[in-house]
Amino acid sequence: MFLRSILSVNRYSLISILRAHTTTSNTTHFGYDEVPEDEKQTRVNQVFSSVADKYDLMNDVMSFGIHRIWKNYFIQVVRPNSQWNYIDVAGGTGDIAFRYLKQLDRYYPSSSIPSSEHPITSTHTHKVESVEQTRIYPTSKCVVADINPNMLAVGKQRALDNNYHDRIQWVEANAEELPFHDEQFDMYTIAFGIRNCTHIDRVVSEAYRVLKKGGRFLCLEFSQVNSTLLRYLYDQYSKTFIPPMGQIIANDWKSYQYLIESIRVFPKQNDFAELIRSCKFRYVNYENLSFGIAAIHSGYKL
What we know:
Elements: H1 2-24, E1 27-30, E2 33-36, H2 37-51, H3 55-63, H4 67-78, E3 86-89, H5 95-107, E4 126-127, E5 142-146, H6 149-161, E6 169-172, E7 185-191, H7 200-210, E8 211-222, H8 228-250, H9 253-264, H10 269-278, E9 282-289, E10 294-300
Parallel strand pairs: 3-5, 3-7, 4-6, 5-6, 7-8
Antiparallel strand pairs: 1-2, 8-10, 9-10
Helix pairs in contact: 1-10, 2-9, 3-8, 4-5, 8-9
């Protein structure tokens, strides 16, 4: 009993630390810098407005191009279902949503018809100014939400180019304050986005709120390499190569510097799994990809 009590205390102490780090402090991380909480979102928006046109190329640089393999595997883990209401959060460029729809069409060829009686065209974005507005229902079986209009603009143009424009609802909204009614979605994904949010626990709690019972939360994110040697090599590559490449590719050193630093301050795999559990998800686990350079975290709403 004594040992169980100690373990319980340690567990909830860890949760308290994580929550203090992400919600109760007046400051938070922006890369290695400590900034006021209300300033981080502005800075993050500036970063992604700057890199929106080069976002996929940026991920190629940061992951040696392996992010494409990770994302394809991520969608295999999702296992798209034509009966689901699906939401991809922080997915403005549509990269995950397009993969989802492509895989869906392989599983269910008839699903290629428009997924809504009132298709959402690429010229329409539902913008949410505050949580005080009346919550909405999804109007498509595939929803992409992102706080940054520049990222959404890239995604909507790509949707037109790939003939997905009538199958996706685009929503400009904060991951911490989604505009949807409770229990609307069967599957919630967020890929390479949650580390840029100010309050990670609020994002996970919102995922729990909008998921139906039995719904699943899946997060793909850069993580902590589990090999000492590989971690050293990847750190050296990140520090010395990626910011200069950002300068060459996008004329933007600082944004790429932030993106690297944001990976380093993101919770380790076990800590993030514990945070997900603290937000009421069950059967929480994670899978490392490429020795932990990235990881997929999973949890269910029961």
